[in-house]
Hints:
globular, mainly alpha, single chain
Amino acid sequence: MLSELARLFLKLGTLGFGGPAAHVALMEDEVVRRRGWMSRERFLDLLGATNLIPGPNSTEMAIHVGHERAGWRGLLVAGTCFILPAFLIVLACAWAYTQYGTLPAAEALLRGVKPVIIAIVLQALWSLGRTAARTRVLAAVGLLSLAAAAVGVDELVVIFGAGALLAILAWGRSRRGRASGILAVPAALASTAAGTVPFGLTPLFLVFLKIGSVLFGSGYVLLAFLRADLVVRRGWLTEGQLLDAVAVGQVTPGPVFTTATFVGYVLGGFRGAVVATVGIFLPAFVFVALSGPLVPRIRRSPVAGAFLDGVNVGSIALMALVAAQLARAAVVDPWTAGIAVASAVLLLRFHASPAWLVPAGGLLGLVLPR
């Protein structure tokens, strides 16, 4: 049973291009249709549970399936085997990047990939934003979160502040009271000033452990956390290096969170890659193991549901801000602007696959004049 789980998730981790939605579709085909390990209803219940906890949804889904199939050992085997292929592929890309990333050919390749990444993030913003901001109240909280993030409020305060605000409003409605007060996040909780902090493996592990423990929503929200922690606060990465890391995460199969592997290798070699990867994925294993019995209660609670709505809309606001910030580093001339616009049209109008657009952008970067 464990060997079957290992083979399945090693395969899915190797072939899983296209992001979390594609990963989940592949899992449903293998687990429900082909193998009959669980009913479609149970599969959907587990999928819903992944949206109630932080972390990478498709990885957590793999962990859930493993736990359902073979208990604790299955949980570890399925999750590890799903992550491992992407880890190894991204590790190889990171090595090549550190060796050849400054060569003209590599720079040209990434020049074409980066604007495609911006378009992919915009597509995710469009689809996720319509769902997250489905009411006027949610839209207003999203705009408030965007404004707070723009003036430097810490990203965790933005996310949990939005959740707490909506939870309070829901609690007030449930008590048939009137919610009042100023909808604001305390300035005292604003983010720390930008600066350069000495690099170390322990701080690196703690940064990614924090991100894996609190990040709700799409994997693209990861960009906001990485930029805030590694570019702005610590000065370990440049904007360009962050975009390169995201590009590698997009062009390789498996979870987007293996961007951490790339960042860790660039900063600290092989040990840095291992430390960053373990840090960002470890909370997913813990949360899946602990959340199962709590999920039915959370779903039945209007206040808890409202908190999660707020977390989602706050995450989208962070995602929008970081997309605008990164676009300045990606769209640097008419050619890259054209790639970004064309990619956005292909994604939004014709539903093109990112798995094809990213390498196509790289090829364009190689042939277009500089």
